[in-house]
């Protein structure tokens, strides 16, 4: 019997959703940074074997939207919940079980929900010899919570507990044919992933509001004989933000470009010529036309 289905990974910002999906798929499909709200889209990571195909859907972290871009992010999250065969609710050791329970209940799920508690590695280092008891106490907090079918402690970063989680997910997958060719790892084209890699470097290298006012749009992506030539625009909301992205004597944008280029080259196994430009689009995060032209559609 072949099983296949969609597992949507949802949860608060920064709990490790993208890390978990990448770990399962074995490739960096979704970007990861220490900052909250890194993920803005629904991104599929596909895991295929002889007997199953799981289409993991990574989603933006759950928040109360303060501007239109965040509204679109939450639409993407809700759409992923609607499409799911199984919802994998990811929390971490810092979130209170009561909050998790009320959030899960408010989603009014129609499909099985599995709960994974991530970053258990941090608990281990904090708890020392009491480790077992501490993990146990987390599990205890969810006793008599019927909205979830199973609760599993994991560390997405260390790969701890993931075999058990995978096994449990497969159990709840419906019988069916694969949705994607079994050698595909994502539903997103390379140019999407390239834009995300550039955005990740901006998240890592800039501070405060800058990453949250930035979008990246690929203008052209051409595979030439000896290299791949990519032109991308970095969009910001204000002239002052453009100055920060460019940096003194262009140092910042060169660094963003260098780190992104190296990672893209490694990913596609070709030499890359990456050109970056900065454009100011005042109020783009509130503007439907800009949002959809930058790819923010639920
Ligand atoms: N210690 C530890 N850190 C982790 C683990 N999983 C993820 N992280 C870190 O947590 C941070 C956030 O990880 P992401 O995968 O980007 O989290 P996310 O839930 O996708 O975040 P959003 O895009 O904001 O929704 C990164 O710095 C990760 O390296 C884990 O198991 N243990």
TrEMBL record:
Region (G1): 11-18
Spans annotated as G2: 37-41
Highest taxon of source: Bacteria
GO biological process, any: ribosomal small subunit assembly
Location (main, coarse): cytoplasm
Annotated region (G3), positions in chain: 58-61
Membrane topology summary: Peripheral membrane protein
Renumbered residue ranges of the record's region G5: 154-156
Domain KH type-2: 206-282
Protein name: GTPase Era
Organism expressing this protein natively: Thermoflavifilum aggregans
């Amino acid at each position: 019997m072949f099983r296949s289905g969609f597992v949507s990974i949802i949860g608060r910002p920064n709990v490790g959703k993208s890390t978990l999906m990448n770990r399962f798929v074995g490739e960096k499909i979704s970007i990861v940074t220490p900052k909250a709200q890194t993920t803005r889209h629904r991104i599929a990571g596909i895991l295929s074997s002889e007997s199953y195909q799981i289409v993991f859907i990574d989603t933006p972290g759950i928040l109360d939207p303060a501007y239109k871009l965040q509204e679109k992010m939450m639409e993407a999250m809700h759409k992923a919940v609607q499409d799911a065969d199984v919802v994998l609710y990811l929390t971490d050791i810092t979130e209170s079980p009561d909050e998790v329970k009320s959030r899960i209940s408010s989603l009014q799920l129609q499909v099985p929900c599995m709960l994974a508690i991530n970053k258990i590695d941090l608990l281990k280092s904090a708890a020392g010899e009491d480790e077992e008891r501490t993990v146990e106490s987390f599990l205890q907090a969810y006793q008599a919570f019927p909205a979830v079918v199973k609760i599993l402690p994991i560390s997405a970063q260390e790969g701890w507990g993931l075999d058990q989680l995978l096994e449990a997910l497969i159990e709840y997958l419906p019988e069916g044919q694969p949705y994607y060719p079994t050698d595909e790892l994502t539903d997103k084209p390379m140019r999407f992933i390239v834009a995300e890699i550039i955005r990740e470097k901006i998240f890592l290298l800039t501070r405060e509001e800058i990453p949250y006012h930035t979008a990246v749009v690929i203008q052209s992506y051409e595979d030439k004989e000896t290299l791949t030539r990519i032109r991308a625009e970095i969009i910001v909301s204000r002239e002052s933000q453009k100055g920060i992205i460019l940096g003194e004597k262009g140092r910042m944008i060169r660094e963003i470009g260098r780190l992104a280029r190296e990672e893209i080259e490694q990913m596609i196994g070709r030499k890359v010529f990456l050109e970056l430009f900065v454009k100011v689009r005042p109020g783009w995060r509130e503007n439907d036309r800009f949002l959809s032209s930058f790819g923010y559609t639920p």
